[in-house]
């Protein structure tokens, strides 16, 4: 059910055409640190990819603060099924390769719709968290020349018992506590958002999902960040990356859980800014 009182600041929308992996989509997006009061229109773009239950609104002010630090424009958008973007029809289940579809089809289609050409993409940084971190890795692998670099924050490369246990616990909380009400502030159709994410992660067919071997084609700079107290994945997730991307750099954060941009924003911003500075074109 749509929530007419959703508390999300005004956004813009882009209409995406039908592709092999999806029908027509309306994508909610917003610029951070752009033009008036921000940086020049020719500054590089940082694209932000949210977590499995995220949206534009759930990032809060972190994209803006990081873009100010980097001197970049920020493109923040809600993936299909989240925020004010086209909801997932309730009878539709995300496929096992849904993150590949996001990286291969939907993000490039959004960039096309916004007129972001290849020259701008070659200077563009992809910054993703959790499922969004996995999508950032896949984008860098599938479009190795259409970015300047990537930052994957608490990404998933494969499914661990810890992940499944935590996601099952989140479902229990969603169905028995105020979690559903709280999340409804960030999504027009909160059940579409929640069950799209939760159902696929708890699907037995998803247990063998892995993107590790697909990362070998990543050529651009890559930073992977994870907190030691992450309850959705162990440090084995980012430790696997250099096996396939030898030039990748890792940052491990103490006293930090699954969301470093909320748990340790200053340390995260410092790690990203230092890395980007070393590789800035």
Task: For this entry, give a set of tags.
281 residues; alpha/beta; Rossmann fold; eight-stranded mixed sheet; 8 strands; globular; EC 4.2.99.20; AB_hydrolase_1; lyase; hydrolase activity
Give a quick summary of the entry.
The protein is of the alpha/beta class. The protein is 38% helix and 16% strand. 46% of the residues are buried.
Strand content: 15-25%
Largest sheet: 8 strands, mixed
Spatial extent as radius of gyration = 17 Å
Shape: globular
**CATH fourth-tier homologous superfamily:** Alpha/Beta hydrolase fold, catalytic domain
| Tally of distinct domains | 1
Helix-strand string: EEEHHEHHEHEHHHEHHEHH
List unreliable stretches of 5+ residues: 1-8
Using DSSP, what is the number of strands?
Answer: 8
Report the top-level CATH class.
Answer: Alpha Beta
What is the mean predicted local confidence, pLDDT? 93
**DSSP helix count?**
12
Give the helix level as a range of percent.
Answer: 25-40%
Order of strands across the widest beta sheet?
A: 1-2-4-3-5-6-7-8
Structural class of the secondary structure composition?
alpha/beta
- What is the name of the CATH architecture? 3-Layer(aba) Sandwich
Determine the N-to-C terminus distance: 46 Å
For this structure, the CATH topology is Rossmann fold
Question: What does this 3D model show about the protein?
Answer:
- The chain is an alpha/beta fold and 281 residues long.
- The protein has helices at 56-59, 62-70, 98-113, 118-121, 131-142, 161-176, 179-183, 190-202, 236-239, 241-244, 260-263, 265-279; strands spanning 12-16, 25-32, 45-49, 73-77, 125-129, 149-153, 222-227, 249-253.
- It has an eight-stranded mixed β-sheet with strand order 1-2-4-3-5-6-7-8, sandwiched between helices.
- The longest helix is centred in the middle third of the chain and has 16 residues, at 98-113.
- The N and C termini lie far apart (46 Å).
């Amino acid at each position: 059910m749509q929530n007419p009182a959703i508390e999300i600041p005004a956004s813009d929308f882009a209409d995406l055409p039908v592709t092999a992996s999806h029908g027509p989509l309306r994508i909610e997006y917003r610029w951070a640190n752009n033009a008036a009061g921000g940086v020049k229109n020719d500054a590089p773009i940082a694209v932000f990819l949210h977590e499995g239950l995220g949206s534009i609104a759930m990032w809060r002010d972190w994209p803006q603060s990081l873009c100010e630090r980097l001197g970049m424009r920020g493109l923040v958008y809600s993936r299909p099924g989240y925020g004010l973007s086209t909801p997932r029809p309730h009878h539709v289940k995300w496929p096992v390769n849904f993150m590949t579809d996001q990286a291969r089809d939907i993000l490039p289609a959004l960039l096309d719709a916004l007129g972001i050409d290849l020259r701008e993409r070659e200077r563009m940084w992809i910054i993703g968290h959790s499922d969004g971190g996995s999508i950032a890795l896949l984008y860098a692998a599938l479009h190795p020349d259409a970015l300047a670099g990537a930052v994957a924050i608490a990404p998933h490369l494969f499914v661990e018992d810890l992940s499944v246990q935590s996601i099952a616990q989140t479902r229990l909380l969603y169905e028995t506590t105020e979690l559903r009400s709280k999340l409804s502030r960030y999504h027009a159709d909160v059940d579409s958002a929640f069950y799209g994410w939760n159902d696929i992660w708890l699907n037995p067919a998803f247990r063998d999902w892995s993107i590790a071997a697909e990362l070998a084609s990543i050529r651009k700079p890559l930073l992977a960040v994870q907190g030691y107290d992450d309850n959705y994945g162990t440090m084995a997730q980012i430790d696997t990356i250099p096996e396939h991307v030898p030039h990748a750099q890792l940052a491990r954060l103490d006293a930090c859980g699954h969301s470093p941009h909320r748990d340790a924003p200053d340390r995260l911003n410092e790690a990203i800014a230092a890395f980007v500075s070393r590789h800035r074109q």
